[in-house]
């Protein structure tokens, strides 16, 4: 059973910086933060044993976890939300795979009710990230070969089953630039991904309303000095983009390039059913994937999602040299801003009481979702 948490003491990361004090919540919302402002160096070198209190993590690209896959339908999304909540993710998007349309519909029918009523021990499922089937069949990555042409009518029909908050598509496909405009006018956020598009295609997609890029560097045309590709378009023009900081999908040096180039680069897990599980075989949509050596792969060795959770993503960013405050924004606040969530991803009065409590080694001690404590054991 979830336990409401009324007050938490520690070094609290507010939008203005760290405060040594107390956060109070009531009915799931933060009502008060009081204390003394302190700098991050003071927090790091303080002798006190007070913990760090950071905004809960927000993951807009979650295929699975705890042995379950979103495409299973049934109660899979609830189980996935519980696994990621135990790793500090307080809100997420259940992410689909490219598949026959009847399988996508079945997955969304299962997710829909969970978007209305949070599992008591799970993260808030904000809606769906539709990663395909509207992608380039020549750049599937680990997606099954069921790419198809998109229509606004079909997307609206899917949206009636579960709230679609984010759509990945390849803008170079015929008619998709106009579709991006239609989707934005209908209230959907659009990302560029699984694409063979050129630099010019990427710039045009952004001009038509695309908001960001799906797992930057992965499953897109790369950067060459005479053909900048989709990666070049992102580095030159994007404000927002996802990145998978498991240190397998993207080299640390490339992550640092993206951090310098894209102001609001944010982290996603792209996690599979193998997250939080031992080595072995798991499902990823219609694929069977193998978890070994810290990664998840198809039989031909292609990376197929990850085992990452966002608490490890935070530690990885800090290991790359980021301050805790900046790393926190990149696993929480920027994703919230990107999705238009003004009351998540930040610790401030009026926001949801979504937070993580961590020790000085950035290990989780407590997780609170909408004012209720998650059991970490």
TrEMBL record:
Name recorded for this polypeptide: N-acetylglucosamine 6-phosphate deacetylase
Organism ancestry: Bacteria, Pseudomonadati, Pseudomonadota, Betaproteobacteria, Burkholderiales
InterPro entries: Amidohydro-rel, GlcNAc_6-P_deAcase, Metal-dep_hydrolase_composite, Metal_Hydrolase
Domain Amidohydrolase-related residue range list: 52-372
GO MF annotation list: metal ion binding; N-acetylglucosamine-6-phosphate deacetylase activity
UniProt key word Hydrolase: yes
Species this protein is from: Roseateles asaccharophilus
Keywords for the protein's UniProt record, in alphabetical order: Carbohydrate metabolism, Hydrolase, Metal-binding
Matching NCBIfam families: nagA (TIGR00221)
Annotated residues for binding of Zn(2+): 131, 194, 215
């Amino acid at each position: 059973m979830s336990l409401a948490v009324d007050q938490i003491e520690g070094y609290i990361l507010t939008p203005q910086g760290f405060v040594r004090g107390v956060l109070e919540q009531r009915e799931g919302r933060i009502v008060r933060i009081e204390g003394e402002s302190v700098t991050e160096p003071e927090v790091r070198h303080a002798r006190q044993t007070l913990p760090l209190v950071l905004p809960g993590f927000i993951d807009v690209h979650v295929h699975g976890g705890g042995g379950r896959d979103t495409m299973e339908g049934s109660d899979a999304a609830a189980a996935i939300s519980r696994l990621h909540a135990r790793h500090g993710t307080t809100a997420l998007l259940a992410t689909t795979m490219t598949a026959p349309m009847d399988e996508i519909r079945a997955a969304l029918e299962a997710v829909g009710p969970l978007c209305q009523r949070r599992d008591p021990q799970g993260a808030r499922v904000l809606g769906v990230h539709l990663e395909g089937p509207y992608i380039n069949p020549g750049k599937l990555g680990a997606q099954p070969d069921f790419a198809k042409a998109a229509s606004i009518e079909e997307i609206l029909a899917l949206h009636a089953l579960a709230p679609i908050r984010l759509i990945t598509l390849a803008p170079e496909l015929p008619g998709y630039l106009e579709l991006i405009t239609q989707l934005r006018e209908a209230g959907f956020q659009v990302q560029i991904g699984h694409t063979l598009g050129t630099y010019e295609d990427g710039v045009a997609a952004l001009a038509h309303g695309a908001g960001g890029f799906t797992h930057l560097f992965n499953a897109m045309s790369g950067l060459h000095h005479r053909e900048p590709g989709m990666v070049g378009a992102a580095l030159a023009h994007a404000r927002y983009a996802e990145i998978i900081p498991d240190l397998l999908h993207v080299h640390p040096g490339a992550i640092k390039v993206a951090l310098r180039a894209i102001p609001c680069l944010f982290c996603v897990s792209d996690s599979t059913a193998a997250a939080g599980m031992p080595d072995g075989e798991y499902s990823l949509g219609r694929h069977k994937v193998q978890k070994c050596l810290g990664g998840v792969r198809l039989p031909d060795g292609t990376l197929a999602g990850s085992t990452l959770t966002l608490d490890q993503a935070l530690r990885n960013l800090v290991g790359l040299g980021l301050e805790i405050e900046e790393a926190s924004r990149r696993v929480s606040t920027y994703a919230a801003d990107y999705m238009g969530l003004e009351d998540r991803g930040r610790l401030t009065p009026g926001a949801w009481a979504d937070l993580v409590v961590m020790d000085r080694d950035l290990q989780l001690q407590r997780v609170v979702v909408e004012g209720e404590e998650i059991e970490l054991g």
